[in-house]
Amino acid sequence: MKTAFITGANKSIGLETTRQLLQQGYYTYLGSRNLENGQKAVEQLKSEGLTNVEAIQIDVTNDNSVKNARAEIGKKVKVLDVLINNSGISGVKFDENGNLIPQTAEHTSIDVFKEVYDINVYGVIRVTQAFLDLLKKSDEPRIVMVSSSQGSITLHSDPTYKYYNHKGAVYLSSKAALNMYTVNLAYELRDTNFKINAVSPGFTKTDFNHNRGTGTVEDAGKRIVKYAVIGNDNVTGKFFCEETNPETGEIPW
Questions:
Q1: Taking the CA atoms of the chain, what radius of gyration do you get in angstroms?
Q2: Does domain 3-240 correspond to CATH entry 3.40.50.720?
Q3: Which of 27, 119, 158, 170 could staple 52 via S-S, CB 3.0–4.6 A?
Q4: How far apart are the C-alpha atoms of 242 and 202, rounded to whole Å?
C-alpha cells in the first residue's frame, strides 16, 4: 500500500485531499499543527469508513516539530510515496473596524512578510528536506507544492488577467518564491522518478479566504490529488491551475 503525508490536513482543502487519497487506497498521514484537531479529523474520516489514516503533529515553522514528525512517520514506514505541502497562510490582517488591510509593497510591515514566508516558503523547505530520504526509497516519489495562480509573475504582469487588480505583496510573493523552489528541486531531481509540481487548487471557498472563494473543496482536492498520483511517464517541474487553464491545466510561472 502506498503512503502519503499531507501538512495542514485537519480541515478544508487539506482534509478533502486526505479523503480523496484514502479513497484511492493510500495510507495517509494527516499533518496538523494541533494534534487534537488532527485526531478529530481522523475520527471524522474513520466514521466515513476511511480507516487507513493517522494524525501526525507538525508545526512547519518549528525545526524540532518537523524532525519529530519525520521520526514518528519513520517508525511506521520505511518508504513515503507522496508528500503534499499544503500548509499555508494568507497573512491577511484587519483594522479595528474589521476592514481588510491591503498587503501593499509600500507599507506592509516586514513582520507580516516573515510570518507568511515562515509557513509558505521556509516551512515547505523544512518539511521537504526532512522527508526526502523516505521519498527517495519510493519507486514513484511525488511531491505536490500547493501553490496559487496568484504566485504567477507572468499572469500578474498581464492587465487582462482576471485577478490582475487583486494584488498583495506578501502572499503573492511567497507563492512566487515557493514556485521557484519547486523549479529548482525538480531540476535537481530530474534524472530520478521524482515528479515535483506546483498546483493551484483555485479560488476555493474556505476559511482561508474568509469564504470568499467560488470553487469547492472537492474540486480543489481533485486537482491536487491528480498530480500526487501521476505515473512515471508524466511531467515534473510544472505549474498547474485548472481554474485558469481548463484545457491543459498548465499556467506560466
A1: 17
A2: yes
A3: 27
A4: 7
